[in-house]
């Protein structure tokens, strides 16, 4: 099956699947200027077979936005792939989390759908933390760490509804809590 045409001495095939074997041969077409020869002359090269192995990781992602909701304790992380050539190489995303700006990052989750570019994370204890996203290709090569983005914690306090500054040491001071 003919897959392409080249007027140079090289050809590049794209869209290949890692580990799947592909076989190629070159069919050259030529002729002699003198008479008495078959025209055109067709020549098939020897067949060569190989299975591609991708060892190049996808590009680094941009973490565009991190939104948060203090009431639902939900963080929204969104990212973009910087160019379409990189998008063809992405199979999944890893999202990393650290509770502090200088802490160690751990894998929070993996998204196995390359068409998804956002994630909602709920933490009942605190939404404070830092996040970054990496792209992973179909061969497991993980791209460089994307931009690290941090969210501060939401201050939560209640105001008492009783305040009696009468000097009896019961509800004399107005303090938010906890």
Structural summary, described in words:
- It is a single chain.
- The protein is 2% helix and 33% strand.
- It is built from 1 helix and 11 strands; from the N terminus they run ββββββαβββββ.
- The protein is mainly beta.
- A hairpin with a 4-residue loop joins β5 (62-69) and β6 (74-80).
- The model has no long low-confidence stretch (mean pLDDT 84).
- The strands form 4 sheets. It has a 4-stranded antiparallel beta sheet with strand order 8-7-10-11, with no helix packed on it. A 3-stranded antiparallel beta sheet has the order 5-6-9, with no helix packed on it. The protein has a two-stranded antiparallel sheet with strand order 1-4.
Secondary-structure map with pairings?
Layout: E1 22-24, E2 27-30, E3 41-44, E4 48-50, E5 62-69, E6 74-80, H1 84-87, E7 92-98, E8 106-111, E9 118-122, E10 129-136, E11 149-151
Antiparallel strand pairs: 1-4, 2-3, 5-6, 6-9, 7-8, 7-10, 10-11
Strand order of the largest sheet: 8-7-10-11
Count every helix, treating DSSP H or I runs of 4 or more residues as helices: 1
**Unreliable parts:** none
Average residue-wise pLDDT: 84
Structural class: mainly beta
Q: What kind of sheet is the major sheet?
A: 4 strands, antiparallel
State the helical fraction.
under 10%
Question: Radius of gyration, Cα only, in angstroms?
Answer: 30 Å
Report how far the terminal alpha carbons are from each other: 73 Å
How many runs of DSSP E, i.e. beta strands? 11
Order of helices and strands: EEEEEEHEEEEE
User: So what's the overall shape?
Assistant: rod-shaped
Strand content: 25-35%
């Amino acid at each position: 099956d003919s897959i392409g045409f080249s007027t140079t001495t090289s050809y590049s095939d794209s869209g290949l699947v890692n580990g799947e074997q592909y076989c190629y041969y070159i069919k050259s077409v030529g002729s002699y200027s003198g008479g008495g020869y078959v025209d055109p002359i067709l020549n098939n090269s020897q067949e060569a077979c190989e299975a591609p192995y991708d060892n190049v990781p996808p590009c680094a992602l941009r973490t565009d936005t991190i939104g948060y909701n203090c009431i639902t304790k939900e963080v929204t992380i969104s990212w973009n792939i910087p160019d379409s050539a990189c998008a063809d190489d992405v199979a999944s995303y890893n999202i990393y989390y650290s509770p502090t700006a200088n802490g160690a990052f751990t894998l929070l989750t993996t998204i196995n759908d390359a068409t998804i570019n956002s994630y909602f994370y709920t933490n009942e204890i605190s939404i404070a933390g830092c996040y970054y996203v990496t792209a992973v290709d179909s061969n497991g090569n993980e791209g460089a760490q994307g931009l690290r983005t941090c969210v501060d914690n939401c201050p939560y306090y209640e105001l008492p509804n009783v305040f009696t500054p009468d000097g009896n040491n019961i509800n004399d001071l107005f303090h938010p809590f906890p």
